[in-house]
Fold each of these.
Amino acid sequence: MRKIITTEDYQKRSSGSLGWIAQRVTGFLLAFILLTHLFMMHVHLGDGPEPVSAEAMWERFSTPGMQAFYLIFLYLAVWHGANGLKNVLDDYLHGPAARWFKTELVWLVGLGIAVAGTLSVFAN
């Protein structure tokens, strides 16, 4: 017979402080990575701005360094978004079953987005 997880059991397992710290760290890293992305893709140095073609984008994505950069960007963004959504929903869903379902659903959707993003990074 399965034990029903109570609110007290949930609170004993996790105070949420690790998620809070991780949210701040990923937010800081995402800001740095976003500025790097904007500089690499949209700030043109030299002769002036040139239109970015699809071929140029695929050429950039074909290098392992850029693939690693965008995978890190993707995984941090998915984790940051899923964790943030989970925290917001925690304020509105109070029952243990609802909280469990919400947590599983948020992470399952996040996993789907991460898989789709990974496939698109390696799609060239």
Amino acid sequence: MELFPSTPSYFASLTPARILIVEDQAPIALHLGTLVRQWGYRVAGWAVSGDQALEVIQFYPPDLVISNYKLQGGMNGLELVGRIQSRWATPVLFFSGIDRQDLPASIFWPRRVQFLAKPIQPSQLRLSLHQMLA
């Protein structure tokens, strides 16, 4: 019996999931980061625009992205989700004040995208993170 297993899956299970937070309002981003850390995850980075998020993902791939709909720059959160999903298998937790029924169904299937309506309840966020990272 190995005392210290050397399989990659064993070590991956010991590493906290890395989460990229894409939010243009600093107080909300900081609150999300605080919650994520309290639950044992690691903040992989912060971005205020879609372009900035794509750059972070390219060089420091996260395990999951949390993104708001409204972002700085010319790209909104829906466009960001589409670009992420076209290049990477990274799951995205998307939140907005927009009603889910007003969002195109194509962003949810077969891609790994979940939606939370604002205001986000910490219990909903935690459950979604757990489900998406399982």
Amino acid sequence: MLSEKLRERIIGWDRRLSAAARKVRILSPLKWPPEVEEAFLDAWDRGERVLPAPPPVAVDYHRPIEALTALIEDIDDAEPLGGFLRRTAESYLAAARMISSAGKEPFTRHSIALYGTPRGIIADGAPSHLEAAEAFLSQSPVLPPEAMAITEPDMSAEQAQAWMQERINQFFDKEHLPVEIHDDLAALASAGARRVRLRGQTHYA
């Protein structure tokens, strides 16, 4: 059982971690502007393999990096909860350093530290990420053709919002799980416990 002193220390570490981590974003800073994405996809459709030219990533993560570095030094990982918080802080620190070095050599090093490599082992006794992907692809041909059919995106974000909200409302209260449109969303869609977000100015199938 945790002592009151250790419990208070763990709560303090957790609060410091939450304060620093909430400022670290990964996908949003790396999002391509619409014109860069369109130019890349248009070139691809023409058979031209041209690397995209997105603008430099403009983020300033020096404060989260300083806060996370200090937190990692302070955490006592002899206690399992402390070890968990320390590993979580280390992952956010790697993410902050990775985004801060976008477009430079350290980006790859920090990315590998955070996500691993294709040949990295998923877990003890498990295959590598590459082997797992190859095993999945080897099973794809057994799927029926209709399951592999590609549907052209013909729904606007607003239409997709209405379509999804109608179906969600069959199970949840609209006020508790709304479907929202966000133009600055990096992914096509994002879902959480309180809302579903769709990227604006995008078409869905």
Amino acid sequence: MLFNKELTGSKKYTINADASSGLTSLTWYKPDSFETLPDYTKPLAAPEQIEISVENGSFEVELQAGELRVYKLNGDLNIREPLKSPVLSHKSGTYLGQQTVTLTSYDEGAEIYYTTDGSYPTYRSERYTSPIIVGQDGELGFFDIKAIAVRGTEISDAVIGRYIISDGSQNVALSREPTFTGETEAFQGSVLPSTVTDGSFDPHNTWGSAPNSPCFAVVDFGKEYTIDRVLVKAWHDWDFNDVVIQLALDENFTQGVYTVFNNDTDNSAGAGAGTDGAYKENPNGGHGFGFAPVKARYMRFITLRRTLAIKAFGKKCKHILRIARERNFFQTRRLGGLRAAALGA
């Protein structure tokens, strides 16, 4: 049944037909006249029956304002439920070492298409034919898998798997309340500052600095650790400026200060002018910074524009801290966006 609810003018419709459903044609029961009402004092004449082919997969029709058309579906029809999203063998989360992820569709005749670069999949994306290898043993990284099921003209909603592949690290900042050097607020979702270090990865829950109040996010590890690596992962594939990442032994950042990264060339953040180059985020894996081991208890970072996430690591006991920031918004995401992590011994 089709109905043009407009009060004036005609409207064109394109109707797609899925041949895999068994549909061969449609029959339109055409009334004698659309312009005049029938004479109900006399028996109604049988409507003219017009068969419409759907061999090409679609047909077009134009309805006048207020017109209602009734069609009958012809063929050996197999009426199916709406196409469901594929199923991932691994839920979003943190895993130790390389993982083999499989995708399954339980809808007959459906094929799976997926991406691993952070983009939304379409029927032109990579077709799934074999398990997907995620990460490498001994390397920490972030990975996304997005997949859809396609059957004829049907396309399912996407399933998204976001993974942190760990090298055996432990989150030493988990649930530690961060502090901020300016005003902050919930930017998205009903969240608290603890969202920054809750270890989750949810782009819809964001804690950030208040408008026109850029500030440092500072995390106290609780004790001194030896740190030798920082992995930075941003929420979006943007260019990031005025990014400063520092480690220190004291909360005032006056003792044992080590600057991991600084591209704040004009000292806008007040932590010293930096000479590091532009930071362009990799939407899938982030970027790592390795350096000679340094001792630190505190970590801070700021970016005066857009989103930043950081992790710092030490090789021996391997502990992780995560914090996050987006456009002066601090954010965590369940599988690898917007955070800082520190590993140490």
